[in-house]
Amino acid sequence: MSIIERAGLAVLHRLNPETAHGLALRGLRAGLVPLPGPVTSDRLRTKLAGLDLPNPVGLAAGFDKNAEALAQLTRAGFGFVEVGAATPRPQSGNARPRLFRLDQDRAVINRFGFNNDGMQAIGARLARRPREGVIGLNLGANKDSKDRRTDFAQVLAHCGESLDFATVNVSSPNTENLRDLQGKAALADLLGGVIEARDALECPIPIFLKIAPDLSEGALSDIAEVARQSGIAAIIATNTTLARDGLHGPHRDEAGGLSGAPLFDRSTRVLAQLSLLTEGRIPLIGVGGISSAEDAYAKIGAGASAVQLYTALVYDGLGLAARIAHGLDDLLERDGFANVAQAVGSTRLEWT
Known about the structure:
By secondary structure, this protein is of the alpha/beta class. The chain has helices spanning 3-12, 17-29, 70-73, 119-127, 148-159, 184-199, 217-230, 264-278, 293-302, 311-316, 320-334, 340-343, and strands spanning 46-48, 51-53, 57-59, 80-86, 99-102, 107-110, 135-139, 165-169, 207-211, 234-237, 257-260, 284-287, 306-309. Strand 1 and strand 2 (51-53) form a beta hairpin. The mean pLDDT is 95.
C-alpha cells in the first residue's frame, strides 16, 4: 500500500463509515486515486460464462451502488466490475446509521436496504459506460413491491443492453423476506421471469445468481438443481451472513449483513459444497472475506472460476485489487498452473 493510500485511509477512518464511503467515491471520480490500469498475464486471463476477463479478481456489488465511477473502476485493476443493486424505483433504504466498521475483525456490518437511485438514473449512467472492461449490474427489488419477480425482470429489461452480465440478488438480509426467494419453487419462478427478459434483449447476456452463506445443505442442493434447470450462467457464493460468531467491538451485535474476514471460512465451505453439487457444470464466483492473493487462491482452489471483493478495500484501499491479481499470478506460477482455469477446484476436498 502506498503512503498516499495509507494516509487517505487514515483520514477516512476518522469519519462516519457511510460519509467516508461517499467521499472515497467522489475522490475516485475526481482523479485523486492512483489507478494501475488493466492487470493481466497469460496465467491470469480467463473466461467466465463466456466473458473474457483480463484477470479473475472482480469488484463485488455495493461499492458503486449507482454506477457513478464506471470509467475509474474499469482502470483500477479489476478483471470485472459489478455495480448496484438497482431497483425499478429509487429508494432511500433503511434509516441511518446503517454501516458499521468492526476494525478488530476487519469486517463490516451493513443494513442499507437497497438504497439506490433507481433503474432510470442508473441505466442512463450505464448507457454512457466505457467500452473497455467487463461491467455487470446487481438486480434488486423495491422494498414495498407487490411483485418482486417483475421487479428483477424490469430492471434487466431497462438496463440490459448496456451490460456484460447481470446478477439476480435474492440473498441480501436487509430487505424483508427477500431471502425467501431462495426457496426452490420461488427461485425457479423468479429466474424464469429474468431469463425471459434476458432472451428478449437484442444481445442476450449471462445471468448470475447470488446466494446467501446461511443455507442448509438441502437448500444448497435445491439451488444447484434450479440453477441447472433455469440456464443460469454462474452462481456467486456468497453474500453477507447473519452469523455473529467470535466478533469484537461495540458494533458486533448490530443488525444487518456481516462481511469481511470473519465470513471467509463460512463462504468458502459453501462454495466448495456448491462446486460438488454442480459437478463443475456451472461456473462459481467466490466472495466473502478475500483480502489477499492467498485468500483469492483458496477460493479458486475450492471451486471458484473467479472471485469478488469489497470489504477489504475499506481496510487496504483500492490498490488491493491489483496487488491481489499480481500475487495470484505468482501463486499460479509457483504451483505450476499455466492458467487460472487449471487451478479451479484443485483443493476443493479440503473445504468439504
